[in-house]
Amino acid sequence: MRIFDPHIHMSSRTTDDYAAMHAAGVRALVEPAFWLGQPRTGVGSFTDYFDALVGWEPFRASQFGIAHHCTIALNPKEANDPRCTPVLDLLPRYLEKDGVVAVGEIGYDSMTAEEDTAFAAQLALAIDHDLPALVHTPHRDKAAGTERSIAVVRESGIAPERVVLDHLNELTVRMVKESGCWLGFSIYPDTKMDEDRMVAILREYGTERVLVNSAADWGKSDPLKTRKTGDAMLAAGFTEDDVDLVLWRNPVAFYGQSGRLDLESGTAAAEFAGNSILRGPRK
Amino acid sequence: MTAWLEEALAKVAADAAALRAVFPAVGRRCGRGPSAVPGWTVDDVARVRLLEAATGAAAEMPDLYRYGDAAEKRAVLRGLSFVDTGDAGRELVADALRTNDTRLVAAAMGEYAATHLDDAAYRHGVLKCVFMGIPLADVAGLDRRTDEELLRMLRSFAAERTAAGREVPADLVKLLNEQDG
Q: Which residue of B38, B39, B70 is in closest CB contact with A58?
């Protein structure tokens, strides 16, 4: 089973996770820029984080044979802190980087006016930089927040097939499917969505434009939830081709719209560096 | 050479500030695989050519490094040995030597470092390479900059590895044997 995790916060994970993910079939991933457990208080803390997403973290991933890409944005929660919003002016520089395959995570947390402004501004950046957009739907008041997110996406003028609305559940899947945007599902141990509910949704709504991710981060989460969903799909009678579509070809198609996805030389380059620098083949 | 690179070379030759726009795009335009230069990738070669082509590149290099991704930073470090930055490149080398990315550390220890680092910084750069498993063949200037203090540090590193029952890198054994022989 080859797996592309389209949403996972590897900066919060250990090298054991990278090894386990590779063993489970993960060969590529996207790490979206988001908030941390501890709120940031200034722009420098964002730029160091962004630098890690286009520097250190891809290096770490490459050591485990996994191609690392990222998305860059001011997240919705910190869009409410005036000490953080000036980072919006620095985003264009990062949105030109090779490993950046979308603008994200953008969207709503508490649906404030400040979040409206940052959301719209960053959808405009996605259009300017010819990148897709990753939209986080809020954990609280999710249905209303998702509906409002779809309206903002529509107003922005970005093509719906270049947008994914993430963290969907039974109550939000239909409206997003009808919007023409991609449907993202975060499979969590207890909360957002689990593998059996995911299988039921795939049965009802089909596999088209669906992205399944672990969204693993610093909270209780499981970086192998992509694999577990693939196994649950097979157990429920989906074919291996269905699983490959959902866990590999769909994320490749969505993020491939950036023109920057590099799945071959991403790991090949690492292998090359591994051989030339780390003395002989990786153990 | 790609048409894109030819055009980019012309742009940066006319105005070094154009480096800011073309530098991030080199990998996706020119490729990232191995090049004819040992240890260098195709994008390393292309980026260093861009630096060499740009009059006034030296003034751009600190910011290209500061705001570059890992591949851009690596190219700026390699470029230090080809573009005269005076002492300004020392801060970039020092920054790279603080990282844990073997590709940056190896690129930092090129000819520029061999010429510009003071003894203490050069010795620690070499020791860091050995410690991280970077081949000594990638380190510039060992023939003229190896001194007694560096040899002491390297012997001590080898003794630590031996005491721990761990392997001492073959190229280090060779270097120490040559010095002792």
A: B70
